[in-house]
């Protein structure tokens, strides 16, 4: 039984592959701290102690001084981030959390991160949770049975570089209900209203059976949600919240809002959204509350309720009838 198995501070060109990490009773199996050009490939993380949501198997962190957790050990406390990290073809099973971080450095972002081809099963908290990650690619992963799937946020501290260039695509997600109505599928939310993600692309994901929302992008400036499939979510399948310059197109959302909560449906756009293109989507029921929205060429078996100002609604199939 180990408290923390592998920590690398201010390192470069670290490669960890084909290893098994199990029965870690606290903290992290691997921590990369202020490191760059590191690769973690084909490793297995399983059966760790479930202490709290901050026990990521792989933590990517800043060189931040902390009286409680004084890392990095022996390296300078200069707030340096991790950069150029690839985590590929790894398996996470029966653990508190998969990959991520829960601390921030005021002027830096963790950047150039790729998480690809990993499997997550029975995760107590988040499969992947990030704070202030820039130029991040999360693709071709398989996630089953957890609390959060992919939770992306900017956190509550100001940084000098606005996080951007986030790609979440071709992931398979199912049965995320450990948190009940607090559970999420893909959730991108700039928790700091003055530090909003830009250039977000969420595409070609399959999301099934989620405790709350399937896919949500909120508090962002520039986001595309396209060609995804969501179904059997307790609240809305796909949504924008307080988002400027959004494109929601070519998605299929069906049998969502199983909870019956008001103003939720297969699609929901709300909370001060503007400059929204909503086109080519298929579903049952939708709610669009926006300014300067363009709602066109969608196909709905039920109603679409559109509110707000300066919206254009034309050439849709609504309640199985064509509406010019």
Topology, element by element:
Elements (H helix, E strand, L loop, with lengths): L5 E4 L5 E3 L2 E3 L7 E4 L2 E6 L2 E3 L9 E6 L21 E6 L2 E5 L1 E4 L9 E7 L2 E5 L2 E6 L1 E7 L2 E5 L1 E6 L10 E6 L2 E5 L7 E6 L7 E7 L2 E5 L2 E6 L1 E7 L2 E5 L4 E4 L2 E6 L2 E3 L12 E13 L2 E2 L2 E11 L2 E2 L3 E6 L2 E3 L1 E3 L2 E3 L1
Parallel strand pairs: 1-4, 2-5, 3-6, 4-7, 5-8, 6-9, 7-10, 8-11, 9-12, 10-13, 11-14, 12-15, 13-16, 14-17, 15-18, 16-19, 17-20, 18-21, 19-22, 20-23, 21-24, 22-25, 23-26, 24-27, 25-28, 26-28, 28-30, 29-31, 30-32, 30-33
Antiparallel strand pairs: 34-35
Please tell me about this protein's structure.
The chain has strands spanning 6-9, 15-17, 20-22, 30-33, 36-41, 44-46, 56-61, 83-88, 91-95, 97-100, 110-116, 119-123, 126-131, 133-139, 142-146, 148-153, 164-169, 172-176, 184-189, 197-203, 206-210, 213-218, 220-226, 229-233, 238-241, 244-249, 252-254, 267-279, 282-283, 286-296, 299-300, 304-309, 312-314, 316-318, 321-323. With 324 residues, the protein is an all-beta fold. The strands form four sheets. It has a 22-stranded parallel sheet that branches. Strands 3-6-9-12-15-18-21-24-27 form a nine-stranded parallel sheet, with no helix packed on it.
């Amino acid at each position: 039984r180990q408290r923390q198995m592998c920590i690398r501070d201010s390192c470069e060109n670290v490669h960890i592959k084909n290893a098994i990490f199990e029965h870690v009773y606290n903290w992290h199996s691997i921590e990369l701290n202020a490191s760059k050009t590191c690769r973690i490939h084909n490793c297995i993380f399983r059966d760790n102690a479930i202490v709290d949501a901050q026990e990521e198997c792989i933590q990517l962190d800043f060189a931040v001084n902390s009286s409680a957790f004084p890392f990095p050990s022996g390296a300078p406390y200069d707030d340096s981030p991790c950069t150029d990290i690839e985590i590929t073809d790894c398996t996470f099973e029966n653990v508190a959390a998969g990959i991520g971080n829960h601390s921030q450095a005021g002027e830096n972002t963790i950047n150039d991160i790729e998480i690809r081809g990993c499997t997550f099963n029975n995760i107590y908290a988040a499969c992947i949770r990030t704070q202030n990650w820039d130029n991040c690619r999360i693709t071709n992963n398989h996630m089953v049975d957890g609390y959060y799937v992919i939770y992306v946020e900017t956190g509550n501290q100001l940084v000098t570089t606005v996080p951007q260039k986030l790609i979440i695509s071709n992931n398979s997600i199912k049965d995320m209900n450990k948190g009940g109505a607090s559970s999420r599928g893909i959730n991108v939310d700039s928790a700091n209203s003055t530090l909003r993600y830009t250039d977000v692309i969420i595409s070609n994901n399959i999301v099934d059976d989620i405790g709350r929302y399937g896919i949500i992008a909120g508090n962002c400036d520039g986001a595309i949600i396209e060609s995804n499939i969501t179904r059997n979510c307790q609240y809305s399948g796909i949504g924008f919240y307080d988002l400027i310059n959004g494109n929601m197109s070519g998605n299929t959302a069906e049998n969502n809002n199983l909870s019956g909560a008001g103003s939720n449906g297969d699609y929901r756009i709300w909370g001060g959204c503007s400059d929204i293109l909503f086109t080519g989507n298929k579903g049952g029921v939708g709610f669009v509350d926006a300014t300067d929205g363009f709602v066109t060429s969608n196909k709905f078996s039920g109603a679409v309720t559109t509110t707000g100002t300066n919206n254009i609604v034309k050439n849709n199939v609504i309640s199985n009838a064509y509406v010019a």
